[in-house]
Write a structure and sequence with these properties.
- It is a single chain.
- With 422 residues, the protein is of the alpha+beta class.
- It is built from 15 helices and 16 strands.
- The strands form three sheets. It has an eight-stranded mixed beta sheet with strand order 1-5-6-11-10-9-7-8, sandwiched between helices.
- A hairpin with a 4-residue loop joins strand 15 and strand 16.
- Helix 1 packs antiparallel against helix 5 and helix 5 runs parallel beside helix 9.
- The protein starts with 17 loop residues before the first helix and ends with a helix.
- Bound molecules: adenosine monophosphate.
- The site of adenosine monophosphate has 17 residues, from strand 6, strand 10, strand 11 and helix 11.
């Protein structure tokens, strides 16, 4: 018989196994809790959309749309793409469901996988996970920008991620940015020979992206380039000054980073990025910014918007590096039942304890005493509950704390209390 070949996961994608997924769930719950306190509600979005949605919003000339999307033709000939990000989908849904009629700002969050065909490395995957939030409405008050960033720090604080830095910039509006881009392009053409091939190409396609360059020999030249802050129009200047004052009011410190332009076309005015420790070169754990005009671009009414996306994979890596992922016991109590007549009681005890939120392992068939205790130990259970015929006759169970083998005889009520308390 021909040997069966093992099938492996695709390059750049990975499995998140139970030891990790428990920590992921905890982080996701923290996001739900914290975002909820700021008035955000969850939106669940499709994982694929018409390619046109991303081409129009993220931008046809960006790396994401030009090179990194997983695109295929559906049977009815529509071009479909796995989502490389979710803001476009949120905006599509906002328009499609007439959410502009809702009172106040519409505050939504989402979490889930995104897909980009990037070169895989630590902290960079082809299927990766984002937790993001968006505020859509009629107001572009700088207090919205600042509160959104405040919410991010509240969330990072809740999950225990420390040592973060916030990079902040304003990339202006359509008018002042396009003037700046021309000034920048002119200067770039002047120094073109000193730049590498990638940057040379970007002078034509997207000059702002030259500012993103990490190439060591381009850094000195980039430092001499004109800066957007000197080219903002009055309205953008005022908006940015007020965003900064609003951050000050909230006690949030930041670095001004004039080179922070972000890789997506729809951004304007406020842009920000959060850098986390322990991540090496892929150290941006969150990116975001304002995108007034995107709703209109996708066929809706004039609307203001701002949002962010946290890279959950990187968040988890950073927490791991900081040893903040305390292993949670996966089993609170292992029930050791002995003798066929005790199984019915064991099942009832398991039902009550699980009903009270206690993690219980109940052997599906009778195990030898030694084997049962050995397994309880290996699973990291905190307690073993021994149920034998003697226990049933006495109406009490033997509770054994596995760390120090201390045994006590307890009623069912006491059993529940002890397990709950610890
Ligand atoms: P972006 O949507 O490009 O603004 O990215 C927002 C955040 O998502 C980044 O700061 C990263 O933390 C994360 N991210 C983006 N691309 C990847 C990727 N290929 N693998 C892992 N995380 C990513």
């Amino acid at each position: 018989m021909a040997e069966r070949q093992q099938i492996r996961a695709i390059k750049g994608v990975r499995d998140i196994l139970p030891l990790e997924s428990r920590a992921w769930s905890r982080v996701e719950r923290a996001a739900q809790d914290v975002f909820g306190t700021f008035g955000f509600a969850e939106i669940r979005l499709p994982i694929f959309e018409q390619t046109e949605l991303f081409a129009r919003s993220v931008g046809a000339d960006t790396d994401i749309v030009g090179k990194e999307m997983y695109t295929f033709t559906d049977r009815d000939e529509a071009s479909i793409s796995l989502r490389p990000e979710a803001t476009a989908s949120v905006v599509r849904a906002y328009i499609e469901h007439g959410m502009h009629t809702l009172p106040g700002d519409v505050k939504l969050y989402y979490m889930g996988p995104m897909f980009r065909r990037e070169r895989p490395q630590k902290g960079r995957y082809r299927q990766f996970y984002q937790i993001g939030a968006e505020v859509l409405g009629q107001s572009d008050a700088p207090g919205i920008d600042a509160e959104l960033i405040e919410m991010l720090f509240a969330f990072f604080g809740r999950v225990g991620l420390e040592g973060l830095t916030l990079d902040l910039n304003s990339i202006g509006c359509k008018e002042c940015r396009s003037k700046y881009v021309e000034v920048l392009r002119a200067k770039l053409l002047y120094v073109k020979d000193k730049l590498g091939a990638d940057s040379q190409r970007r002078i034509e396609t997207n000059p702002l992206r030259v500012l993103d360059s990490k190439a060591p020999d381009e850094q000195a030249i980039i430092e001499t380039l004109p800066r957007i802050a000197d080219h903002l129009c009055e309205a953008c200047k005022t908006h940015f000054a007020e965003v900064r004052r609003q951050l000050d009011l909230r006690g949030i410190t930041y670095n001004l980073n004039w080179r922070l332009v972000r890789g997506l076309d729809y951004y304007m005015r406020t842009t920000f990025e959060i850098i986390a420790p322990g991540l090496g070169s892929q150290n941006a754990v969150c990116g975001g910014g304002r995108y007034d005009g995107l709703v209109e671009l996708l066929g809706g009414l004039p609307t203001k918007g701002i949002g962010f996306a946290i890279g959950e994979d990187r968040l988890m890596l950073s927490l791991e590096a900081a040893a903040k992922l305390a292993a949670e016991p996966s089993v609170d109590a292992f029930i050791v039942w002995m003798g066929a007549a005790t199984q019915a009681t064991a099942i009832k005890v398991a039902q009550r304890l699980r009903g009270a939120g206690i993690k219980v392992e109940l052997p599906p068939e009778e195990f030898k005493f030694k084997k049962a205790l050995g397994l309880a130990d290996k699973l990291g259970a905190r307690y073993a509950i021994l149920i034998g015929e003697n226990e049933i006759a006495a109406g009490k169970f033997t509770l054994k704390r596995l760390a120090d083998a201390v045994q006590t005889s307890v009623t069912e009520v006491e059993l529940l209390e002890t397990l709950r308390a610890n």
